[in-house]
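Issue 218. Parser rejects a valid record. Input:
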Amino acid sequence: MDLLSRLLALMPVAGRLDVRCHFGAPWRIDNPAADAREIPYHVLLRGEAVIEDKHGAPLRMRAGDIVLFPAGKPHTLHDGAGGPPTVSEARVVNGLKIETNQGTGASVDILCGRFLVPAVPERLLRDHLPGRLLVHSVAHGENGHATPDELTDNVVATSRLARLIQLMREEAHEQGPASETLVNHLSGALFALTLRFASDTAEPPRGLLALAQRPRLQPALSAMFDEPGKPWSLPELAELCHMSRATFVRHFDEAIGRSASDVLTEIRMALAGRKLAQTNMGIAEIGEAVGYQSDAAFQRVFKKQVGMTPAQWRTQAKAEAAPQH
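Output the parser choked on:
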């Protein structure tokens, strides 16, 4: 399995579409901070939009662009004019929320939703992604604009990611039976494809996905995912990659600014967190399964990485997973 597949197998991410916005300028969407295990996303189906947040200069979105906010910080999308937005109203059709306004300016069509991180310590995912990530599903012309104003059949045919977005658009537009469920499932696939496209750009996500561009390190990464419970040493991991210890350490530091030992610990904690949430295995047994012969050592590392004890994590995760009445 490739690195992205391994990451998503360890931490499968689902999706949820919250609202489809049909706006005419002036318009504005203010998003508060997301919950701990949510990654907000926006897909621009038609028109243009400006993104503002605390992670850098404003960014411009065009038809076919996707932006996600792994850090979950507050952010704003607007038409770029700076004026007060036109009042909007919402209605629900077949479970899907549709929001419109009476703005007479340039129109936009936006899907807004959330990627849902499972009940495992999300550090392995969040810490290896930028605070915000903008990905283009279609190529833009020399002037920076997509050839069409919206996703057309010709454009969609050129991009797998664009085809998925088009399918989401069709389901959201037709609002047929089970459209909400289908769009939510498609949102989960959208996350995986977005990270794949981001990994192929000139500025890929940092962290584990940046390591995907270092084929010489893949044997060590595969070993850590395949046998996280083995007491790996740096010399052993370096030997798998046919490198000296110093060269191996340098490659890891250049790629993500973290050591192989740090990544192994994060993989172990993610696996332990999932076992705590989804099984009734004893805590010491889980610790041993992920490489800790001492229960005290496992408890200490887990609390340092996650911010709570394994028992507290298990209680919280099971409470969140319980049916709500």
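Fixed in the parser; the record now loads. The mean pLDDT is 84.
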